[in-house]
Amino acid sequence: MPTDSRGLEFTTSNDAAVAAFDHVLEGYLGLSVDTGERLKAVFAADADMPMAQVLKGYFFMLMGAGPLKAKAGEIASGVAASLAGATKREQMHGLALSAWAAGRWRDALDLWDGILLENPRDILAMRLAHHGYFYQGDSQNLRDVVARNLHAWDTDVQGYGFVMGMRAFGLEETHAYETAIEAGQLALSINPNDPWAIHAVAHVYEMIDQPAEGIAWITDNEPGWVGCNNFKGHLYWHRALMRLDRGEYDEAIAIFDDYLWDPKSTEYLDFCNYASLLQRLELHGQDVGERWLALAEMAKGRTHEHIVTFADVHFALALAAAKAPEAAEIVESMQNYAAESDEDNADVAAAIGLPLAEALLAYQAGEFGECVERLHPIRYGLPFMGGSHAQRDLFAMLLIDAALRSGNNNVARALAAERLCRMPDNAWAHGAFERAFGS
Fold it and tell me: Each residue's pLDDT tens digit in the chain (439 positions)?
């Protein structure tokens, strides 16, 4: 049976299909813009290769769009027969795709972890579990899904650099900042074209409040990420946040207009970048003009998707900021989804997504006291909707601002003091503290 570069067996009629599969995996891990074209090469080599179908379904799920989720489910059903004669590992991948497409995140994660127990070099299972734990808000497993399989990896194994890039991000999200930088640097020494590793270290500089160093890191490593897929927008987003931290508002707005904004994008990560940057600009006292209106137009057709709660709340934010009537529609849809769906995400929507969306609508309506009432009790639960510490920090900023605007002085002072302790050199934290204590 043909094997890939890491010794994993594949059910296929020829070695060329496995080589092409290796090539598409390298594109996926490196966030290459031609990953879709690489997948076509796998089908050209063997149109009946079961894992090629599964990978196509995985890619549809990674897009986070309603119609593609439905297609992923169709693929999972269609490939079941051909997987019957495949390896156990491949069968488990098929089951994971089926579970994920049905909204059973936890079952999919159990399957990927099960694959890795017997096949610790299955880098596809590792990366998908890394992604899944990220959107479950499980930072420890985000880190440890790499750590518990490292025993099978070293510099002689193809893809080790990408594994180190994942390790760097897991370490950053669990606040092991120095070790995260070391892992990220090791990843790039092996493969400088690893946007995920570059991104992991950028997160470190954001979290330790060193924007100048962060801007330099992103800029110096630009050849390794500027040519990648839409994820390059997220690196520009990080650079814009660091410009905000330095009070360089014109530069941050220019990044939005010149590098981030794509009116044709359907990627939920792009949308989250847009909405969160605009809201941060406003929290810094900047006028963003009519940019919210264009975002609202993007969000209007996505009020009933509910694939990732993290995306839903950003859709709600943009709709509310633009005063669009669909803002109320997405809240109602989230209510119905939380009450009626048996998907794992429905639990998150009920506990976290819905009250957060309601808080965002209240904030944009100038009902700051209501925003505090809805957001303050759930603030430590926000990680469960996914996203990074840096991404979710927007909601911490909104809560402080709402408390200040509502005259809830005790909450405002407590939160402002808490933030300043965590970020003693941050200009926005100092400003919030001064507002709260009248100094």
Answer: 899 999 999 999 999 999 999 999 999 999 999 999 999 999 999 999 999 999 999 999 999 998 999 999 999 999 999 999 999 999 999 999 999 999 999 999 999 999 999 999 999 999 999 999 999 999 999 999 999 999 999 999 999 999 999 999 999 999 999 999 999 999 999 999 999 999 999 999 999 999 999 999 999 999 999 999 999 999 999 999 999 999 999 999 999 999 999 999 999 999 999 999 999 999 999 999 999 999 999 999 999 999 999 999 999 999 999 999 999 999 999 999 999 999 999 999 999 999 999 999 999 999 999 999 999 999 999 999 999 999 999 999 999 999 999 999 999 999 999 999 998 988 899 999 999 998 5
Beta-bridged to residue 228, according to DSSP, are 32
Q: Which long-range contacts (CB under 8 A, 24 or more apart) does 319-324 make?
A: 320/360, 320/361, 320/363, 320/364, 320/365, 321/275, 321/278, 321/279, 321/292, 321/295, 321/296, 321/364, 322/292, 322/293, 322/295, 322/296, 323/364, 324/296, 324/299, 324/300
Instruction: Give the Cα-Cα-Cα angle 177, 133, 113 (nearest 5 degrees).
Output: 110
**Same structural domain for residues 277 and 230?**
no
Say if residue 389 is exposed, middle or buried (CB neighbours under 10 Å; 0-12, 13-18, 19+).
middle
CATH code of the domain in which 112 resides: 1.25.40
Question: How many C-beta atoms lie closer than 10 Å to residue 151's C-beta?
Answer: 8
Residue 374 lies in a domain: yes
Report if residue 34 sits inside a domain: yes
222 DSSP 8-state letter: G
Same domain (yes/no): 421, 295 = yes
Residue 140 lies in a domain: no
Residue the block writes with tokens 């207009």: 257
Q: Which two tokens stand for residue 189?
A: 């020494």
Measure the CA–CA gap between 218 and 334, rounded to whole angstroms: 37
Domain containing 314: what range? 261-439
Residues 110 and 168 in one domain: no
**In-domain check, residue 410:** yes
- Whether pTM > 0.90 for this model: the answer is yes
In degrees and rounded to multiples of 5, residue 334 shows phi and psi of -65, -40
Instruction: Say if residue 282 is in the same domain as residue 228.
Output: no
Among residues 259, 287, 321, which one ends one of the domains?
A: 259
- SS3 of residue 213 by DSSP: helix
Residues 401 and 416: their CA atoms lie apart, in Å, by 9
